[in-house]
Amino acid sequence: MRAVILAAGEGRRLKRYTENLPKGMLAFHGKPLIRHQIDAYHAQGIRDITVVRGFCGHAIPYTDVTYVENPRWAETNMVESLLCARALFDDDLLVSYADICFDAPLLRAMRTCPHQIGVAVDLNWQAYWQKRYGRIDFDTESLKFDAHGRIVSLGVSDPPLAEISGRYIGMLKFSARALREVVAIYESAKLTHWEKPWQQSGKPFRQAYMTDLLQELIDRGEAVQAVTVSGGWLEFDTNEDYERQRDWPFDEGLSTPPRTV
Description:
The protein has helices spanning 15-18, 33-43, 78-83, 104-111, 125-133, 176-193, 210-219, 239-245; strands at 2-7, 27-28, 31-32, 49-53, 66-69, 93-97, 100-102, 117-122, 141-145, 151-157, 167-174, 225-229, 233-235. The strands form four sheets. The protein has a seven-stranded mixed beta sheet. It has a two-stranded antiparallel sheet with strand order 2-3. A two-stranded antiparallel sheet has the order 7-13. The chain is built from eight helices and 13 strands. It has one domain (2-245): Alpha-Beta Complex (Spore Coat Polysaccharide Biosynthesis Protein SpsA, Chain A). With 261 residues, it is an alpha/beta fold. It is globular, with a radius of gyration of 17 Å. Strand 2 (27-28) and strand 3 (31-32) form a beta hairpin. Residues 255-261 have low confidence and may be disordered.
């Protein structure tokens, strides 16, 4: 199994700290977030790790990973960054956003997920949101799954709470077969929607979110499985996030083992 860390974005909401630095290089407990991820993957026996770089890519210095570049980082988003690594799509793939930190049980659950497509979903997100923001009605998005744990819809911003069964984390697993479908979707949507609104976010395809891609897979009949957790991760998305969470104990919110539905 391979791993890809998506680290091409500019991190505009962290500009106090990332004017000349990718947000994945923000230090947390003595080392950058990307280094935390690399070390976590190594501890699980995953050595084939690729980092997709873009904004200030030269500031990611590690010699024990492979790099690919997203030259269009300023005008694209997560889907385009993922497809920059399409040469790796001949094996099962773990994908993680560079601005998160996750514990060993969560990574183990994702690595051992038996499904073609697995998505890490936090069932206890409200407790984290309350601690993080002091409220649960801020920066939310929809995610619903059925009785079998298959996600049926996701990615709508600021939905009613009833539309949030759990929080999308930014960590995914794709089988090699599922990645072939991802490439097919990409090639089709690139031709028809590059500058036109696409899927739930309403963004043009070039700026598509990963949740848009997942919804397209669902709409095409692919089974997208929720790998449910209770905590086990932290996200650093804004200046305030970083200032609030950078001094939390490393295992703050990272203690409850995940389970697969």
